[in-house]
Amino acid sequence: MNATDHDLTLSQAREHAYSIPLEHIDVSHWNLFRDDTLWPYFERLRREKPVHFHEHSKVGPFWSVTAYDLIKAIDMDHGSFSSEPTIGLDDLLPGESLPMFIAMDQPKHNEQRRAVAPVAAPRNLASLEPTIRRRVIDILEGLPVGETFNWVDRVSIELTTQMLATLFDFPFDERRKLTRWSDVATSPIKAGLVESHEQRLEELFECLSYFKTLRQARESSPPGADLLSMLAHDPATRNMPDMEFLGNLLLLIVGGNDTTRNSISGGVLALNRFPDQYERLRLDPSIIPNMIAEIIRWQTPLAYMRRTATRDVEVNGQQIREGDRVVMWYVSGNRDESVFEDADRLIIDRSNARQHLSFGFGIHRCMGNRVAELQLRVLWEEIGKRFHMIEVVGEPERSLSNLIRGYTKLPVQVHPR
After folding, report:
1. Strand order in the sheet with 51-54
2. For the chain, N or C: smaller number of CB within 10 Å?
3. Cβ proximity of 190 and 223 under 8 Å
4. Residue ranges with strand state E in 186-324
5. Full set of structural domains in the chain with CATH
6. pTM over 0.90
7. Angle subtended at Cα 39 by Cα 34 and Cα 45, rounded to the nearest 5 degrees
8. Mind listing the pLDDT tens digit for each residue in 309-327?
């Protein structure tokens, strides 16, 4: 990996970010995320106008909230800022209503979230750990030593998709369908994953049909410990309309797949960017749990969450009107130097790493955060037992998305201990 090329590109972005009028900055533009040049634009907004109105953006008018404390305050203010009708800037299915509990307010949010919450309970996590460890070992021991391969596909996607299949009790040999549906749901048409809105609809309705067949079998069986059984038997979710069922399926699939897999890839990239931290990890593997929190902060796999103002409200001197779209940029708050010193660096023993914004706050705090941390911890424990280094040997390719901060390719070679 040529860090100099990345630094040069970032330097050019910084010059541009500080030379244009503030009102011309559009941090929703996908290219900033694909090219990893978003940082100076968010830095300028934090410094000069942490609550900023984008009147002319690629996705229409919205407010950007970019400072840590302001993001946290809005995330906790469920009276002034609603999660309905959606938490995204782009409509996933234009012209279609796609309800899901993350985009619901009380009381319906809690009722539906409670139905699937047991999957992340401590007892269930403890029972899952041996399965995760066994799968991690199988994946790592099957990696080709001395050859270049795509870490995203061989490790990040494979591990998280196996886990997701287990959580849904989904047919294991068809688990890559889950990856496909997750990618289709989160990628803009411009990314090239699907050719048209009609193709996206067709594939997501295939997801709905597949899961409806599985749900019918769960309904006629005793309640189980998997997500689909929980949805099928809980009074708050068992009679959901089709589009609401699809919305919650996609929420659970994306939440259980994209975020963890991109933190797995991001962690490898970060440790290569900051080799002193990789050496620190080798010397002291006990630091892994704190490192996981720091990787999740540094990567911020979900860039933002949107809210909609329920009334006129003033935030940091700016007058937000009822109905305005308000975007909490977690990716910016996690690089706020007033909270995280030397925030652009990965520092695996950072004392306040767990204060990151990546899982959100309040009633919508990520339900599966412990599942994600468990997978990452086990993975890095087993990597340390087998490999001196996972070396990044080429430039990463990133997802074209302003929501999911992800990777499609990360060329690496593994070096045994």
Report:
1. 51-54, 62-65, 325-329, 304-309, 81-82
2. C
3. no
4. 304-309, 313-315, 318-320
5. 3-416 (1.10.630.10)
6. yes
7. 125
8. 999 999 999 999 999 999 9
